[in-house]
Amino acid sequence: MTGAAFRLLLISILLAPLWLGDQPGVWLGAQESPPPASPSPGGDLSVSLVTIGQGDLVWERFGHNALLFEDRADGTATAYHWGIFNFFSEDFIPRLIRGTMLYSMGPSDFAVALSEYRRAGRPVWIQELALTPDQRVELLALVEENYLPENRDYRYDYYRDNCSTRLRDALDGVIGGQIQALFANDTTEHSFRWHTRRILGEMPLYYLGIQFVLGPSADRPITVWEEMFLPRTLRENLREVQVPDGSGGFRPLVAREGELLEPTTAGPPSSPPFALPLFLALGLMWGGSLIWIGRPPARMSSWRRAGVFVLGGGWAGLASLGGTLLLGAWLFTDHEFWYANFNLFQVSPLFLPLLLALFIFLVKNRLPAWGRRTALALAGLSVLGVIVEALPGIGQNNLEILALTVPLNLALWIAAGRLKSG
């Protein structure tokens, strides 16, 4: 495997649990595009919000958006967006791990971008904004200043500071905070986790990863203002915004809108999948198989010992790795939405000694007594986690993870109690 291929493989693994939106492909070259000329008089300038629907890759699932500036004086159409990142930058992987990723913004030729989206089969919508000439010039000046080398990079946060929230804030700034005033206190019934589950529901491994790493802070109900981390939500709610019309009245911010490219596939589901039975079935089958293959007699054939190690040791290895990931993220990274994760009751670095004990059993047909005690302690911790999360106001939306892990932890304890000890 070449170095570049290995790097891409490693990146795809790291992206699994935490990549939420934006895309490098269509807009990547925009980083080197020259900025457009200084703004012409506002009367020759139109400003539109362009919203791109979801694509097939994980970083495309949440959609994208851009501000389109069309200058009738010189016939240019330039789209500014805040979704540029580079897989091959020197510090990409370290920043990804630490939760300190840098994104960038920049312009792109709109016709070229639209052509790419057409080839990808992604829908594109456009909304012309009813800004005054002065506001159009101000907004263009703002994004051009944002594109200066010293300003274009920003610290990316997948929910609170992404391509869509940056665009939202820029637009809100030139219309006097009308968007924030209307939506900042309008609380929805949904959370960041709910939307993430909904959008990643058709990608099982990514869905499992995000359910595992997100902690309780991802479960609080969010406002419509916060919900605009999704480009589609920003597009839909801009229709409700009213701005002064210059004669004492108000008019809609969205002057007109249309569909530039029709969708070729169905959009994201309207609600998350009901995956609880699948997680429970997997936990019960895996755990039940471990109990069955670890049944008496105490003297086991080598293939049965291997089966116990594969099933029990496989889970112990995954649980120790997952627990180390969650604990390390909490203590040493800026992935704030992973902090204080109640899944640490179910997986932890404490599974590593049990993995060692099961390896000793595989080799010597004897499980160390401390291995049996470790299995008991981990099963007790697992049950304690369920009890704690059942208390009012405590816990997180992790029923699917509990359905998978609790049967496995109890099965490990039962199987360890049946294995020959010494």
Sum up the structure in keywords:
422 residues, alpha+beta, 7-stranded antiparallel β-sheet, two-stranded antiparallel ribbon, 15 helices, 9 strands, 47% helix, 13% strand, elongated, disordered N terminus
Strand order of the largest sheet: 6-4-3-2-1-5-9
Shape: elongated
Number of domains: 2
Series of H and E elements? HEEEHEHEHEHHHHHHEEEHHHHH
Strand count, sense and barrel status of the largest sheet are: 7 strands, antiparallel
Q: What's the total count of β strands? A: 9
Helix content: 40-55%
Judged by helices, strands and strand pairing, the structural class is alpha+beta
User: What is the helix tally?
Assistant: 15
Q: Report the C-alpha radius of gyration, rounded.
A: 26 Å
| Distance between the ends | 45 Å
Low-pLDDT windows of residues: 1-21, 24-35
Quote the average pLDDT: 90
Task: Provide the β-strand percentage band.
Answer: 5-15%
